[in-house]
């Protein structure tokens, strides 16, 4: 996955950094479910890897609300070879009706010991919102 981060999105990233707690929980009834070997702690997923052994996580954005939302952008903010992100060619923007999901697969592998942080930013438009300012 590749994406170009606009000034608006850079500004949003700064806001998320400083107001992190506000962004950890789902909006409009949408939450992220995680499938695969991990621990969850304060909005972070901890993945312990054996050297040279691949693990795969599935991040599933599920609309548990009663109204449709639209996933407008997906930004895996990571520039390290330990993580590869795949969305199975699901196009964006992607409408998500109640009960519907969008999946992001994260392939994790390392050949050396270390700590490798990665952030995934999901941008959603809720019911009746339009444009990136409403996201």
Please identify the top-level CATH class: Mainly Beta
Poorly predicted parts? none
Residues in β-strands, percent: 35-45%
Characterize the main sheet.
4 strands, antiparallel
Which topology does CATH recognise? Immunoglobulin-like
Tell me the number of strands.
Answer: 9
> Which H/E pattern describes the elements?
HHEEEEEEEEE
Topology:
Blueprint: H1 7-18, H2 20-23, E1 30-35, E2 39-41, E3 44-46, E4 55-63, E5 69-77, E6 83-86, E7 94-96, E8 101-108, E9 119-125
Antiparallel strand pairs: 1-4, 2-3, 4-8, 5-7, 5-9, 6-8
In summary, what is this structure?
Keywords: ATP-binding, Helicase, Hydrolase, Nucleotide-binding. This protein is mainly beta. It has helices at 7-18, 20-23; strands spanning 30-35, 39-41, 44-46, 55-63, 69-77, 83-86, 94-96, 101-108, 119-125.
Key phrases:
135 residues, globular, four-stranded antiparallel sheet, mainly beta, single chain
Explain how this protein is built.
With 135 residues, the protein is mainly beta. It has a single domain (1-125), classed as Immunoglobulin-like. Helix content is 12%, strand content 39%. The protein has 2 helices and 9 strands. The protein has helices at 7-18, 20-23, and strands spanning 30-35, 39-41, 44-46, 55-63, 69-77, 83-86, 94-96, 101-108, 119-125. The chain has a 4-stranded antiparallel β-sheet, with no helix packed on it. Strands 7-5-9 form a 3-stranded antiparallel β-sheet, with no helix packed on it. A hairpin with a 2-residue loop joins strand 2 (39-41) and strand 3 (44-46). 12% of the residues are buried. Residues 20-128 form the Helicase MOV-10 Ig-like domain. GO terms for molecular function: helicase activity. InterPro entries: MOV-10_Ig-like (IPR049077). This is Putative helicase MOV-10. It comes from Macaca mulatta (Rhesus macaque).
């Amino acid at each position: 996955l590749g994406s170009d981060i606009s000034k608006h999105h850079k500004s949003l990233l700064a806001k998320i950094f400083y107001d992190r707690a506000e962004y950890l929980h789902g909006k409009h009834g949408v939450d992220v479910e995680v499938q695969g070997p991990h621990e969850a702690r304060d909005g972070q997923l901890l993945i312990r890897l054996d050297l040279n052994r691949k693990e795969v996580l599935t991040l599933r954005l599920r609309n548990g609300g009663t109204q449709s939302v639209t996933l407008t952008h997906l930004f895996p903010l990571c520039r390290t070879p330990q993580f590869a992100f795949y969305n199975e060619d699901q196009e964006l923007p992607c409408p998500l009706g109640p009960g519907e999901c969008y999946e992001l697969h994260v392939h994790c592998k390392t050949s050396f010991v270390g700590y490798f942080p990665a952030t995934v930013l999901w941008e959603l438009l809720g019911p009746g919102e339009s444009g990136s300012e409403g996201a």
